[in-house]
Amino acid sequence: MRTGRFFPGKLILSGEHSVVYGYPALAASIDLGIQMRLQPAQRPVVDPYVQHIFSIFQQQMGIEKLRNFELDIQSTLPQKSGLGSSAAFAAALFDALFAFYDFPEPDEEKLFQLVWQAENFVHGNSSGLDPAVVVSAGIIHFQKQEKFQKRGLVLGKNWQKQDLYLWDTGPASESTKEMVERVAELAKSPKGKLLLQKISQCSEVIEANFLKDKVETSPFWENHQLLNEIGVVGNTANEQIQQLRKYGIDCKIVGAGGIKTGSGFILVLPATQQQMAIAEKIFLEKRNRFYRIRLNNTKEKNEKSNG
Predict the structure, then answer these.
(1) Mean pLDDT, consecutive 10-residue segments, the chain of 307 residues?
(2) What is the CATH number of domain 7-142?
(3) Residue 263 CB: number of other CB atoms within 10 A?
(4) Region of residue 80 (left: phi > 0; alpha: psi -120 to 50; beta: else)
(5) I need a labelling partner for 195 at 20 to 30 A (CA). Which of 18, 148, 273, 305 fits?
(6) What pTM, to 2 d.p., does this model score?
(7) Does 157-293 carry CATH code 3.40.50.720?
(8) What residues contact residue 191 under an 8 Å CB cut-off, 6+ apart?
(9) Keywords of this protein's UniProt record, alphabetized (predicted)?
(10) Whose CA is closest to 67, among 43, 91, 89?
């Protein structure tokens, strides 16, 4: 029986929430993720998401009855933080099921469809972005109802060596589904439609910079300000961000956001070595989890983190 593969988490670089309404989004895989192996067990796993994934697999593969399993999970990926943890978990579990039953390793399209189906259980109306990035890895230009593809967005040398940070604001109290529903009301108004269009324009600028291998961080900050305007960023996240903005450091939340408590992780993009040193000093003073990462083109593990 083969070992289950490693599936990376993801960052939405631009296009949160607007992607649900047909606008393009940019996302990237990161070197934090999940790997899983199944062992026979006496009792079933009671988690509803796991049972939902089991049900999808059973129906798709024509298995009359699944046996009980114990899940051996190896994960460096925080949950409820906008990093695609539910999609990575589903991909790893489906892959482990294929391995346990000695089915051929699923191709990207098949695994994508399975994970997308599972994600709808968690998010209601999943855009498909998280499954696309988790399954295929690399930099993804994604548009809803369009087949996922990399579209030539291979990282150039400048972006490959660009150090970034993820800084934790704490998990959101709200689910992704709740945040999507919150934005849905605003999206009906002319103001909401305009804000979503502006987020899409940020995505276009960032994509153009990737294609030119131009490291420019200001469009990420513009994107964050728009996310603030659509009401998905809480006070805790904004207070942390202001600590960075005092020194001109560009940053943005990643994922669906959160209001009542945390908003997940902040993507921090220092432009200089001095800004890197300042950012790390702030992280350590605030004592929140942080990870130093780089974007990547492949499914690679990060063996070092600062969590």
Answers:
(1) 82 89 88 91 91 95 91 87 88 95 92 92 73 86 65 77 92 87 94 96 94 94 96 95 97 91 93 96 93 75 52
(2) 3.30.230.10
(3) 32
(4) left
(5) 148
(6) 0.80
(7) no
(8) none
(9) ATP-binding, Cytoplasm, Kinase, Lipid biosynthesis, Lipid metabolism, Magnesium, Nucleotide-binding, Transferase
(10) 43
